[in-house]
Sequence to fold (228 residues):
Amino acid sequence: KTQVEQSPQSLVVRQGENCVLQCNYSVTPDNHLRWFKQDTGKGLVSLTVLVDQKDKTSNGRYSATLDKDAKHSTLHITATLLDDTATYICVVGDRGSALGRLHFGAGTQLIVIP
Amino acid sequence: DMKVTQMPRYLIKRMGENVLLECGQDMSHETMYWYRQDPGLGLQLIYISYDVDSNSEGDIPKGYRVSRKKREHFSLILDSAKTNQTSVYFCASSLSQAANTEVFFGKGTRLTVV
Fold:
């Protein structure tokens, strides 16, 4: 059973618009949550990591929230650029030790059009 | 420049042939991973390595084996490749599994088994 669900599956926005990507998970324990950006044909690049029970992070035009009580995270992208076109992947880590596992969502495919 | 390098980037093999995927990292990271990524699915963990000759099965190890004889190299081996092993394979590394430890991914190897 998929433990990390992302929505929407795909999203098309116009350059300059804002967008919000959702991640719901059932992973237990939920030590931390990362958002990755994956350009087509490339590897995953970390955007941000959230750790606290209710956490917020900001990295340029990317901002993210985490609510561990709701097991829910959001990734906000403001003033989108064409280069934001990519797949955004939510990953939940179930422990903070070497024995921990990472649980990957299938990703949200974001397409930014002119 | 911190990076994870995968070779080759693209590979076509016949069913039954042996396959060797190579991964290197220049960060002296202890932990390394092999994942596969299939359309519509999150990355699935094949094997994890905690250091030289300290490897553990991931979630889908069947049909694969690994070798880590040097900290900077982690190889994935398919003995007698099968068509259902057609996928994109990603190698990753991290200093540890702590929550604030970044995970670095290679650009992937696209393997096609015909």
Q: What stands out?
A: The interface with chain A takes residues 4, 30-31, 35, 40-45, 50, 58-59, 90, 92, 96-100, 102-103, 105-108 of chain B (CB under 8 Å). The CA atoms of residues 36 and 42 of chain B lie 9 Å apart. DSSP finds no helices and eleven strands in chain B. Chain B has a mean pLDDT of 93.
